[in-house]
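Deliverable D5.2: sample structural annotation.
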Amino acid sequence: MKQCFVFAFGLILMACASSPDIPTDFPPGPEIVENPENLPTEKFEGILESVNTGCFADGECYVTVDNKHVTVIMGWSQETVGSVQGVDGFGDLESYIGKNISVYAAKVSEKKFTLYGDEEFYIAVNSDAVDAENKGLSYEGLMEIHNVRFPEDVCDMDNLASVSADEKFKTYMMDGNQRLYIAMCNIHAYQSSYVMYTEKVNQEGVSSLVLNQYKDGEIIDGDRWIIDPEYDQKSKTLTTRSKGRAMGDCGSKAFYHWEGQDGGFFDLVKYWSKDECDGDFEASWPLQYEKK
């Protein structure tokens, strides 16, 4: 019985050893650096070439700067590590690919660096890159483009001369290396209309954004006019409110979430409306639509 067992086990080993279907060229996993605090350190500047967000799934977040691999975050590590400076979070570095950044890190090898080992280590987006990234179009420049492109729907810039710049024009950096422009177009009796555009950084041309709307049980294409939008950069959500009359006892409200694919768009998530203007401006508006 023992000989049979040994013989069978041997066949299994032979079959496994000779199987041609088992890959042998697995890509290497993230390198674990022992005692990074004992490594030499180096400061350098270079062009940000790529950003990898593997730590979002418990892997390695790293960047390449002038063909140098810099480990920034290991998703599972609790060791002392430096910081990303000049942006809100690691993922925001994608907006600065092609820009000059500064690095202070431990030197693992000629082409490998890590921020682990000292909380003073950093990757920093340089101020000139931030200024260039945030510059974009001016309000006047965007309105000129809009009024030429849509002569039937011009924005009344003269009527907006007394409105502060911060109130009538906002610019946000979005994923996919894009800018979002939200610009006031006209002031009405009790609310204002806006237009929204997106622009690829370092590329010419802007695209008009149109929000989907809910009507009669269906999602339909909307128009360019957006009433009193409020955008939250952290959650990437947009809320619009349209009053039926000044006291606000009727009207509609919509809630959107930014989706980065296909050039970027706002996806309708919820829609409320109250058709009856009954004087009750404290009543909750009925929810008419919620995306499943």
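Annotation notes: Residues 1-30 have pLDDT under 50 and may be disordered. The chain has four helices and 19 strands.
The annotation will be released with the project's public dataset once the embargo ends.
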